Amino acid sequence: MKLAVFTSRYPAQVATFFERDMRSLVDAGIEIDVFSVAPFDPSLWKHALPLLGPDQLPRDRVYHLGVLDGVRGGIKTLLRRDPTARRDARAILASATQYGLEPFAKTAYVLPKAWAWAARARKYDHVLAYWGNYAGTCAYAFHRLAMPHVPFSIWLHAGSDLYFDTVFLREKLLYADNIITCCEFNVRYLAREFADVMPQIASKLLVNHHGLDLSAFTFRPEGRPQNRVIAVGRLAKEKGYDYLVRAAQLLATRGVDVLVDFVGHGRDEERLVSLARELGVSDRVRFRGWLPFAEVRKAMSEATVLVHPSNGLGDGLPNVLREAMGVGTPVIASDVAGIPDALNDGCGVLVPPKDVPALANAIAALLADPARRIEMATRARQRVEQHYDLARNGIRLARVLRSTKPRSAGRAVGMRSGSRSQRSYDLVALDLLVTPKSDAVRFDHDELDWSELRQAAQRGGALVRVADAVKRPGEPLPTRFAEAVAKACQRTQQIVDVVDQLSDVCTRLGLSHAFVRTAECYPDAPAAVNLLIGEPSPGVDRDITHPIHAVRERGSLHHRLAGVSTYRMPYGNQLLIRHGRLGRLGEHARFARLLLARAECRSMGTATPRSSAPADHLVVLAMHQVYTRPEFRLSDLHGAIMAVRGTSIDWDYVFATALSTSTLPAVGCYLEYLARMYRSVSDDALVPEDVLRRFAASSPTPAPALVEDRGFPRTWSAVRLYWQHLRATLESGRWHSAVRLSLVPVMAALTAGGRASGGARR
Question: Which of 324, 599, 639, 644 could form an SS bridge with 610, CB 3.0 to 4.6 Å?
Fold first, then answer.
């Protein structure tokens, strides 16, 4: 197996756990190439661990690109007008803008390198992003361009790539075939922070601990000095080392003999030296600087206890803890992140973060009790042997990587006679939804790629509907598919309960209201619950959200500009309250009033919320998807097709509404798109030809042509539609709406790309 591994920097002054993990994969029979996104410094090779020397990883298989080479390669890719590269650039850079200048610059730095490497890539069987941040973005862009059909995995670690500055991370999680992480805490963190996509990613999560070559870690808990405390790591504020200096001062005032050694360099070193001098403990605190790993291991073996006083989220499970446990040095550390996963059950001492007295008490107690130290060290070594053995963990990870099936989008699928044989599974899922189940000739279950179908249905928000369409009486669905469906049903029931409560509250408060693009998703759960109310002021929000315990949060930029209030509900879902306005930037107040007046009750499981009428639902979708959301959205397509096909649409009303809201070209374009998508999976016409001609003939200019099944529409077409809309709005004298519409180009530049390709996998 040939594996392409993307990492942030290699060689590096400190890359111990990366080198150990790579060695474990090499020993498991995997051939690896390493792509390092940071500038190359050959002088750093002297710091490489012997376990990953040239015999294990030839130096010519560690690839670097200079800035100019990367830029040249990236420009060549863009000049070739590669649609995947352009789409990814828009999406990724739009995500990066939300995190500030530095993350944006780093993201812009790695993209050309990814494209340049993709242009000269050899054949690989799997791509692994070793970090979730910028190396992960580079690996993602490389994979999409060079070899999208091989598996893609991402490895998440700690603050640098999971807790902070998570540029494009949600999309990378959805895209990956495997999500590997180094501790159980990170799984819980993902479940909390990415609750909205957890149903899609839960089955892909794997905990694989960073391992140790235990033969190099001699266990010797006896013969230690009585007063030597050591702290190992980068001297940075988040490590909490200032609390250790203060604990040393507190111990000195109590008469406890203690000597603290700091091993490592960092930007916080000068401040820590000054603090020790200020507290009068310079004679008890030594700063030994950076040391080669062999000397670090020796220093840990000679210490009485190792202290790691993290002040909060930063490290997931610090490697220095495992290393100390391996050599028999007892550990005291903060009760944060993944540290308890290693130190609980008597394998170490946990203290509250930022609590100097508690830290001092723990150090004093352990220094005074040699028997307890030996017992703790013995337990810790046993845990290391059980969970952190390098060879065992490497074999396990290699097995996962090898067993991941190649992606098969576009592979031939058996369909009804006369249909096209080469389709993406997005269209397969759409075909299943819109074709009557009683059709005599259906898909061959044996030829379906159930993994591809499941992922297409999940990213399209229609998993339960697809399962209902494909399931045969008496035949169970594949296990993984069935588990995903069960989770989706549970999430749907949560949404149904919330919608029912919100309906009751709005009725009790006497608010005119309707749920937009919500009930139409049933029996699936929508990505966000959209509640339109007639009250323009957000002052009523508190009364609406109080019964469901929703918490206000900072919404996306376009929601804030549209005056939409964003709330996070208990199960992680979003609630969007729209105050008397619709449209991407709230430009449609007149249509919102019309929709509320025409709203009708719709069955949604045990709830019967007021929802938009079918014709209004059709117009809403056209308004929301033409300018800044050119995406294939399975749930919306299905809802629109059912609205047109399943009821007697009043086309005169649709035409008049589109005309009065200045969206006539947009609605005409969307109807043409629906007609083409429906014809791609059916032999029947969806929208009458005379209706399509009426919309086309009544537009100021002909509706833009749709250029591909899943591309709706191309950028230049969307721009033309936008200008037609803005001009018609100005001509009608709706100045407030025109002002809001003038912000669309800004939003298109900042956020459209992220939505365009965030969940899609080619």
Answer: 599
Contact 628, 725 (CB under 8 A): no
Q: What whole-number distance in Å separates Cα of residue 558 and Cα of residue 746? A: 10
What's the CA gap between 124 and 1, in Å, rounded?
Answer: 8
Give the domain-ending residue among 589, 612, 635.
Answer: 612
- Based on the fold, state whether residues 589 and 673 are members of the same structural domain: no
Q: Are residues 619 and 598 in the same domain?
A: no
Same domain, 595 and 743: no
pLDDT band at 709 (very low <50, low <70, confident <90, very high): very low
pLDDT, one tens digit per residue, over 129-178 is: 999 999 999 999 999 989 888 999 999 998 788 888 889 999 999 999 99
pLDDT one-digit tens code per residue, 217-228: 999 999 899 999
3-state helix, strand, coil in the chain (%, to 5): 55, 10, 35
CA 257 to chain CA centroid, Å, is: 49
Domain that holds residue 559: 481-612
Q: Are residues 302 and 249 in the same domain?
A: yes
Q: Is residue 410 part of a domain?
A: no
* Residue 485 to residue 483: CA distance in whole angstroms: 5
Structural domain includes residue 407: no
For the chain, the domain total comes to: 5
Do 43 and 190 share a structural domain? yes
Tell me if 118 sits within 8 A of 140, measured CB to CB: no
**Residue 182 tokens, joined:** 């180094």
* Residues with Cβ within 8 Å of residue 161, at least 6 apart in sequence: 131, 132, 133, 135, 136
In 85-213, DSSP assigns E strands to 126-129, 152-156, 178-181, 205-207
- Residues 152/146, Cβ–Cβ less than 8 Å: no
